[in-house]
Amino acid sequence: MKLYDSGGPNPKVVRMFLAEKNLTIPTVKVDMAGGENRKPAHLARNPSGTLPVLETNAGNFISEVTAICEYLEELHPTPALIGATPEERAVTRMWVRKLDLGICEPMANAFRFSEGLSFFRDRLHTEPEAAPGLKRLVQVNLKWLDAQLEGKTWIVGSRFTLADILLYAFINFFSKNGQPLDPALERVGAWFQAVKARPSSAS
What we know:
The protein is of the alpha+beta class. It folds into two domains: 2-75, Glutaredoxin; 86-202, Glutathione S-transferase Yfyf (Class Pi), Chain A, domain 2. Helices cover 51% and strands 6% of the residues. It has helices at residues 9-21, 40-45, 65-75, 86-112, 117-120, 131-148, 162-174, 186-196, and strands spanning 2-5, 27-29, 53-55, 61-63. Helix 1 (9-21) packs parallel to helix 3 (65-75), helix 4 runs antiparallel to helix 6 and helix 4 (86-112) packs parallel to helix 7. It is globular. The two termini are 18 Å apart. 33% of the residues are buried.
């Protein structure tokens, strides 16, 4: 296998997932700042031009972090970061989708349409007027999540999962880029510090 990697929150999700699995695979850095991800060689791997991309031993290419992590979990089920049973996997997938749709994707688009606009305006369709509303939506959904974390160690409860890795990678990046974490969200803040304390967070 080979991982095509870059900066940003999405590649960090896969690097953290690999670190939690204690897996090391060859990695190729793709220069997003220089537009390498929009050139034919990378577009042949992923027509969307996004990163990361995992090349399988069979020579196929998998993009989208959830799909990559699901694939890695099937190959290396221990430790289980999605789940060891059908019910555990379903609960993790439920939370990954809630977080992706409600927090991660609007957080990313808010950045692309505001702080990151000069970088993204010539690379994809942008809607700068949408940025303030997206940032407000993220805060509403983080407040909702804060309430859901009562009595929990991790997003799904007592298990550390892909849901924690996904949200951590996004908050870690965007809190430094125009969307700081509200200190009033005490449970989210404590959860964030707990993830940050894990060795994989440095990946």
